[in-house]
Design brief:
Structural class: alpha+beta
CATH architecture of the largest domain: Up-down Bundle
Mean pLDDT: 86
Number of helices: 16
CATH superfamily of the largest domain: Multidrug efflux transporter AcrB transmembrane domain
CATH class of the largest domain: Mainly Alpha
Shape: elongated
Radius of gyration: 33 Å
CATH topology of the largest domain: Multidrug efflux transporter AcrB transmembrane fold
Number of strands: 15
Low-confidence stretches: none
Number of domains: 3
Largest sheet: 5 strands, antiparallel
Helix content: 40-55%
Length: about 525
């Protein structure tokens, strides 16, 4: 008869390749609160944003500490909230809110986003709070760093990528840095006459500092009053933000002691551009943070971004050749962490093998025992797939859905498995060798006796481990999502390894020991 080992390896490989889900980076450690921002288009000021903020308050504040009957009856789409905090700036309105029922946080995020986007030109972004990453979806954020030689092509490509991401994903959450992807911000551009400035001993830094000081103020230093740090700013005698009509008449003092109007040193023009230039590695860059829906794993989301956004834009010409796009953020960290874990897996396997060689004083029997490792890994993957399948059906019977992503912490469960799934096979193989050597029985009798002797300890250790891990794996609650993946892999991996130990491993052991006995007798003959 042929060895069952190739079939076992083939089955394990098939399970690992087919059933392993796309990877996530880290669990969010999500809190039942949202951080939502509304970014204004160019041209808005603080007064306009405060007027919009009052409308936001009028709509959402009545639902703080509400009884929830209207929401349950479908009369309103805003769930009851525990609190609502708001911050208003000339370019952004930011809300931090928490629902009374943690299950309603997604509904609140969707409603805030919908209400934000009803204002012309506004862009909305909402993310859940996280105890692990920043509160902007950091562990699931796909960052597109779009850079190029000029802002026109960079902003055009960024807008095209933004629209493409909204089309390929179902309700993604997207934000950009800068928040406004437009070169339409009204600006005052001061163009110095460099020849005239050189005659007067003025450089670019001194002209810029003087103009800033005489208009909106310039930071010069700071000092500490007790434990409080206080910034020192310099302002012109006319105060901050003089009128545009008076800007040409702003008096500039030169190193020679002369005082001249700004109009004699520079040309003042009204134009439109961006109010902020962001640079990454010295290049003008716009960054898009794309957070795919919860049902799209990070690894799958990155693959779709590469093919359905970037490659599609290259093919259509929407992404010029002089514009570069780098994918960073959680996807980069996912690849780096996975490479590190892969190296750790290899080292762990080598250590386990060498320890077994030292225990058995043999180079071959450890390989027999270590066949439990791929089968245990396969058991963990099958169990994780079954748990997600059944967990997705729980809402049909009125229970909360249960879903465990295949994140990096979950993958640590495989490292734990490597040191635990070999324990029972060690006992079986060692007992079978002793039976064969000391009792003079046949190979089948030796292996059968070993399994019978070790069956009770195997069952006891497996059942106690499963019972201990079950609450972590099957009872969702605050904090369990962080380590549920590790628990699931270890639980199902040990269960699968226990089944393999009393079914497949005896057959493989009989084959190996039988072949060894036949080879020994042939040598004696």
């Amino acid at each position: 008869h042929g060895s069952p080992a190739p079939a076992a390896r083939g089955f394990s490989l098939w399970v690992i390749l087919v059933l392993t889900p796309p990877a996530e980076y880290l669990p969010e450690g999500e809190e039942p609160k949202t951080f939502a921002a509304m970014s204004a288009p160019p041209g808005y000021n603080l007064q306009e944003m405060e007027a919009i903020a009052r409308q936001v308050e009028d709509y959402f504040l009545p639902h703080v500490n509400a009884d929830g009957q209207a929401y349950a009856a479908g009369e309103t789409s805003v769930p009851p909230m525990a609190y609502l905090n708001m911050q208003v700036t000339p370019t952004r309105i930011r809300i931090i809110a928490e629902t009374l029922n943690p299950r309603h946080i997604e509904a609140l995020m969707d409603e805030i986003t919908r209400f934000y986007e009803q204002f012309p030109g506004m862009r909305a972004f909402a993310a859940k709070g996280s105890i692990i990453s920043s509160n902007d979806g950091g562990t699931r954020s796909i960052n597109l760093d779009i850079s190029g030689p000029d802002l026109v092509s960079v902003y055009s490509a960024a807008n095209a990528a933004y629209q493409q991401a909204e089309e390929i994903f179902d309700n993604p959450r997207i934000q950009s840095q800068p928040s406004t992807l437009s070169l339409a911000q009204p600006l005052i551009q001061i163009m110095p006459d460099w020849d005239r400035a050189a005659e007067l001993g003025l450089g670019a830094e001194s002209i810029g500092f003087t103009v800033a000081s005489l208009t909106e103020g310039s930071y010069v230093d700071d000092f500490f009053l007790d434990d409080e740090k206080i910034d020192i700013y310099v302002y012109g005698s006319e105060g901050r933000n003089p009128s545009l009509d008076s800007l040409p008449d702003v008096m500039v003092h030169t190193p020679q002691g002369a005082t001249l109007p700004l109009s004699s040193l520079a040309t003042i023009e009204e134009t439109v551009d961006t109010s902020m230039v962001r640079r990454v590695d010295g290049r003008r860059t716009v960054t898009l943070n794309v957070i795919p829906p919860d049902d799209v794993p990070l690894e799958a989301g990155v693959a779709r971004v590469r093919t359905e956004i970037l490659q599609s834009m290259r093919d259509s010409g929407a992404l010029p050749a002089n514009v570069d796009v780098d994918i960073s953020g959680a996807s980069d960290q996912l690849n780096a962490t996975r490479e590190a874990l892969t190296g750790n897996f290899i080292i762990a396997i080598a250590i386990v093998y060498l320890l077994l060689v030292a225990i058995f004083a043999h180079w071959g029997f450890p390989l027999l025992i270590m066949t439990a490792i791929p089968l245990g890994v396969a058991g963990g993957i099958v169990g994780l797939a079954l748990m997600n399948l059944v967990g997705g059906l729980l809402p049909m019977i009125g229970l909360q859905p249960l879903r465990q992503p295949f994140d990096m912490i979950t993958m640590l469960g495989f490292l734990i498995l490597m040191g635990t799934v070999v324990n029972n096979p060690i006992l079986v193989v060692d007992q079978a060798r002793q039976n064969l050597r000391q009792k003079g029985v046949t190979v089948v009798q030796a292996v059968t006796g070993a399994v019978q002797t070790r069956l009770r300890p195997i069952a006891m250790t497996t059942l106690t481990t499963i019972c201990g891990l079950s609450p972590l794996v099957f009872l969702p609650g605050e904090g369990t999502e962080l380590y549920r993946g590790v628990g699931a892999i270890v639980l199902f991996g040990l269960l699968g390894a226990a089944i393999v130990t009393v079914t497949f491993l005896p057959s493989l052991t009989i084959f190996v020991l039988g072949w060894r006995e036949r080879w020994r007798r042939s040598r004696e003959v």
